[in-house]
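Action item from last meeting closed. Structure (121 res):
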């Protein structure tokens, strides 16, 4: 039992932790890029009456940002919108809810990834 805890702690420190930081960094870069596109488009449209044609159709960073956000929240065991309700559920039911949520994120990530890749091409 102690060995399993040590392995789990080592995996968290050397694998999960760095991956979580990388995921957060990628999400921050995608958010900044999306924000710059939106601000630039609004300014060009408002000040110069010259909208950026591709800015409304280029929503691929949004989809990828959602994927990275979901992965980060799942790794931390967090979801602010749902935590309010889930914290009030008995522990046995909560385990079932957590399993269903993990399956949902897993099953929806592949189609979402394919959608964002096809919309960015």
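Sequence:
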């Amino acid at each position: 039992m102690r060995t399993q805890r040590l392995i789990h702690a080592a995996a968290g420190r050397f694998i999960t932790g760095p991956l979580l930081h990388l995921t957060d960094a990628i999400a921050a870069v995608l958010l900044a890029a999306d924000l710059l596109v939106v601000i630039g488009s609004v300014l060009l449209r408002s000040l110069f009456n010259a909208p950026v044609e591709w800015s409304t159709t280029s929503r691929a960073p949004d989809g990828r940002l959602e994927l990275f956000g979901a992965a980060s929240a799942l790794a931390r065991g967090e979801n602010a919108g749902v935590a309010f309700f889930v914290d009030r559920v008995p522990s046995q039911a909560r385990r079932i809810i957590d399993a269903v949520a993990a399956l949902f994120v897993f099953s929806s990530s592949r189609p979402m990834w394919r959608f964002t890749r096809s919309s960015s091409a």
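Note appended to the action item: The radius of gyration is 19 Å.
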